[in-house]
Automatic annotation (TrEMBL):
Entry protein name: ABC transporter ATP-binding protein
Membrane-spanning ranges: none
Lineage of the organism: Bacteria, Bacillati, Actinomycetota, Actinomycetes, Micrococcales
InterPro entries listed in its UniProt record: AAA+_ATPase, ABC_transporter-like_ATP-bd, ABC_transporter-like_CS, ABC_transpr_LolD-like, MacB-like_ATP-bd, P-loop_NTPase
Domain ABC transporter: 11-245
Gene Ontology CC annotation, any one: plasma membrane
Length: 247
C-alpha cells in the first residue's frame, strides 16, 4: 500500500500545473508535478534557476494558486479552500521561514516569535521557546525590534517563530542564506532534529549542496518537472547531480 493510501504523507501534489503569462510569453513553471512528502521527513528542493522550486513551495503551502491538479496538507485539499480557511490552515498547521523575514517592525523579537501562537489562541511552551532561542543565539536580543537586529539575527527570529508552535510542516526558503557557516549548521541541525525527534515535516528550498546534505531527501527539479531525487546524499554527490541538470 502506498504512503498516500496509508495517509502517511504530510504534503502531496498530484499533476500540479502552474503557468504564467499567455500566448508567446507563457511560461510553464510547474508541469504536471506529482510528489509526496512523508511525515517527519526533511526534504531539500533544488534545481537550476527558473526550475520551479519556489513556485512548487508556494503552491504546496497555499501561498499561490495553481492551474490544475491538486495539492494537500495531510488530508486537506487546498484548491477548495476560501482565503479565510487558507489563512487558518497556514496559521495552525504550517510554519514559514522565507528570505524576506516578514517580521512586524513595531514588535520586539520575542513578540514576533510569539505572534502566530497567540493569534491561534494556543499555549506557549516556554521551555521549547527557550531551547530554540538558545540554539539560534538570540536570547539576548529578544527585546530588540527588527530594525535593531542584523539580517542574520532577523533570520533567526523568523526561524524561531516558525518552529515555536511545532507545526506539522515547515516550509523554508534558503533559511541559512544570511547566516555564517557555524550558525547555519546549527539551524540546519535544529531543522533535522525537529523532523527526527518531533515528527515535523521540513520542506526546504536551497541552492547550497552543503545545506541540502542535512536533509533526508533531495528533490531535483528542472523545467518545472521532477528530474530525480537523492537520499542521504553528501554535498559532492548533490553538486554532481545539479551539474547534470545544468545548475
Amino acid at each position: 500500500m502506498s504512503d498516500v493510501e496509508q495517509g502517511r504523507y504530510a504534503v502531496r501534489a498530484l499533476d500540479l500545473t502552474k503557468t504564467y503569462g499567455s500566448g508567446e510569453t507563457q511560461v510553464t513553471a510547474l508541469d504536471r508535478v506529482g510528489v509526496t512528502f512523508r511525515r517527519g521527513e526533511f526534504t531539500a528542493i533544488m534545481g537550476p534557476s527558473g526550475s520551479g522550486k519556489s513556485t512548487l513551495m508556494h503552491c504546496l503551502a497555499g501561498l499561490d494558486t495553481f492551474d490544475s491538479g491538486s495539492a494537500a496538507i495531510g488530508e486537506q485539499e487546498l484548491s477548495g479552500l476560501r482565503d479565510r480557511e487558507l489563512t487558518v490552515l497556514r496559521r495552525e498547521r504550517i510554519g514559514f521561514v522565507f528570505q524576506a523575514f516578514n517580521l512586524v517592525p513595531t514588535l520586539t523579537a520575542e513578540q514576533n516569535i510569539l505572534l502566530p501562537v497567540e493569534l491561534a489562541g494556543a499555549r506557549v511552551d516556554r521551555a521549547w521557546m527557550s531551547s530554540i532561542v538558545d540554539v539560534l543565539g538570540i536570547s539576548e536580543r529578544l527585546r530588540h525590534k527588527p530594525s535593531e537586529l542584523s539580517g542574520g539575527q532577523q533570520q533567526r527570529v523568523a526561524i524561531a517563530r516558525a518552529l515555536l508552535s511545532r507545526p506539522e510542516v515547515v516550509f523554508a526558503d534558503e533559511p541559512t542564506g544570511n547566516l555564517d557557516s557555524r550558525s547555519g549548521a546549527e539551524v540546519l541541525a535544529l531543522l533535522r532534529r525537529s523532523a527526527r525527534e518531533m515528527g515535523q515535516t521540513i520542506i526546504m528550498v536551497t541552492h547550497d549542496p552543503l545545506a541540502a546534505s542535512y536533509a533526508d531527501r533531495v528533490l531535483l527539479l528542472a523545467d518545472g518537472r521532477i528530474a530525480g531525487e537523492l537520499s542521504d546524499a553528501e554535498p559532492d554527490e548533490i553538486l554532481a547531480a545539479l551539474g547534470r541538470l545544468g545548475a
